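<goal> How does this chain fold?
<sample>
Here is the protein in question

***
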Amino acid sequence: MALTHAILVALIDCPSSGYDLAKRFDGSVGFFWDASHQQIYRELARLEEAGHLQAETIQQDSRPNKKIFSVTATGRALLQTWMQQPSKIGPLKDDLLVKLFGGALVHKAVLLEELEGHRRQHRDRLAEYRAIAARFFPHPHDLSVADTYQYLTLRNGLLYEEGWLTWCEEAIAPCIISNLRKGAVFLSSLMGQTRYHSGRFPHSPNSYGNPRHYFVDCWRCTLFCPAQPKAEGI
């Protein structure tokens, strides 16, 4: 698919100015076909020159005149021809998966931070999709044919984000469990030792007013510091 087809689909039932199309693109087709506003403006000019779009100039008194673009008969035919051609699965390029593939090269804390960041982003995107569904498709079983097809693209996005969140939880769990196990081993060793090897900790928990605070600080450092402190004998 090319940006040509994405723009024609976006304009087929809703003629728009370039500015309005670019804004609307971000909240609809742009979710599954990324394009900058400059790319959209250039493609609009090319499609108009090729006769696939026609533009009506709207006079404005206090602002520059604007063009309203609509799809011509040749543009509709171009789109229909493309839609009848089989589509292949798009190539996957994902930085996170490449990092995980070589994850043994870095400390688990690095990967954990990366995974949690992706989990937040996918959680935010899922919330955005759910808000769109509630606003525009409150009764999905009563939609027109055209709206049903558009709703199906939203359903794809919802399931995609839910799948990513499920995978993030699955990927994050081993990192957390590993850190918890290290923390448990370390704390167990501290409870049986009186001398400690670490510049982060005092040589004795007696320097803390409450010994429990000492062990809590040790626990936090064990979980979140890449360099794991070790007590004598570990």
User: Anything to note?
Assistant: The mean pLDDT is 81. The chain has two domains: 3-83, 98-234. Residues 58 and 96 are 47 Å apart (CA to CA).
